[in-house]
Structure formats: C-alpha cells, structure tokens
Amino acid sequence: MSHLDPEIEQRIDGPVSSEAVRETRMTPAEAIEGMRIRFPERGNRKLRRVIDRANADAQLKAWWHVSNVNAVARMQINDHSWVHIQVVVNIALKLLRQLTKHGVEPSAVRDYGLTNEDSEVIVVLSALMHCVGMSVHRRGHEDFSLFLSEPKMRDLLDGIYDEPERTVVISEVLQAITSHRSDGEPLALEAGILRVADALDMAKGRSRIPFEAGSVSMHSLSAAAIEEVTIEDGDERPVKIGILMNNSSGLFQVDGLLKAKLRGSGLEPYVEVIAHIDTENEKRLVSVYRLDL
Asked: Taking the model in full, what pTM does it have?
C-alpha cells in the first residue's frame, strides 16, 4: 500500500494477519513497546506535537492492544491492532490532502474558521481514537470509544489548543468516531473521511484472519481477494481510489461494503472507485469494475 503515499509504508513487519496474531500472545509491556504511529507531517507543528504525545502514551497503546486481543484472539475477526490505526491515519490524511489539493474546503475551515492544519489534527485524532472502545467490547464499541477518548484528547491537546478551540476540535473528533459505525451519519467532511478511511483498510491481510483460521464465507473469501488499495488524482473527480483484486470475489468488499460506507459520507461528489482484477488463473467475468456512487 505504499502507493498511498511514497513517504510512508502502511503495513509493517510482514503480513498483518500474522503480526496481529503474534501481538496477542505478548505481555502488555511487550506488545506496546514497538508501537509507533508514523505519517508524513508536512510541516504541521500542531499535528507533530499531538502524535509525539500519542506515541508516548502507554494508556492509549494499551487500548489498542486490548482491542486487538478482543478482535483477533477472542472473536477471530479482522485486525484492530495499532497497525490498523497507522493505516487508517495515513489513508485519512491522504484523502484529506487530496481533497484540499483540489480546493475542497474542510468543514472545520468552513464552519469554524479553523485551518487545513487543524482539520488534519481532527482527522488524525479521530483515526487514533476511533476503535479504542473495542477494548471494552465489539458491540457498541463506537460509544465506548467516545467516553474513553474525550478525557484522553483533553490531555493530548493541552497547551496546543486553548478554549474554546480545544472543545471544538474534540467535538468534531467525537462526531467522526460515532459516525464511522455502519449506520452513522457524518455531519462534517472530516467525519466522512474517517468513515471511508476505516473501510479502505482492506488490503494485504487485515481481513484475512478469519479466512486463514478456516472460516470460509463470502466475507472471508472476498476479504482475502483484495491485494492493493491506491489513492491518487481522479480522472473526473479529485480522488480516485483504485482497488486491485486477485479474483472477482473481492467485488463483495467493493460493492457490498465500501459502497455502504461511501454513501452518506459526504465524499460522494469527490471520489471515484475503480476495481481491477489482475489474475491469470481465473476466468475473467469482470476485468474492470467502476463503483456507481
């Protein structure tokens, strides 16, 4: 997934499925030791301070670890480790920067007179916090994420934002967190970006854990079919999302799951999605598929 941004590698230390499982067998101290979120900061000093604090926060990392234990070891569903967090951070930033590059105004700028850099802080914080509630339970994890993350964000933003801007930033992050659920209704561009970015972490292993554990279903088969996701300038719209699949079962991920997250996100006017099937071993029923938004 390096195509998302040449400055950062999204997946690290090998296939995420094996990495996510290995992490669940460590002690908590061992598991959080190597966690470090990286992304291209591009001169955004507020964002740099936020991520430095997050990378030094053992409680936040512990939430990521427990979330992954619940997801992978106990429920045998897809990865919710810190690697997932890193991927979503980078996808979300890439989407936001692609949109602002083409003149799309973030909601924080339009509605509050903040800056594009402040919108980046909102997007990154929402990605960092969006599934910490999985440390409590899968069911209702978005709501658990809200009450865990609110006081944590006040600590992370202390001295970076004064009131009332700090409460504005935190409120926008909380909206993004609650709106990333399947029936969420994003009210801001930044919230829609998190919703789509979370759905786009589908390549190179994240959702392959159930399949590798022997669960064969349309969900597990289609997840295993996704090879690569790219984000670049669109031909007709500001953003083109390219999805490379090794077989046509991956269309379920695209048409069944990604479409549901894109619809209602607020990103529909700005995004085009094109899926390609690249294989010599399958009779090609579809070679190129364009998602109708």
From this structure: 0.86
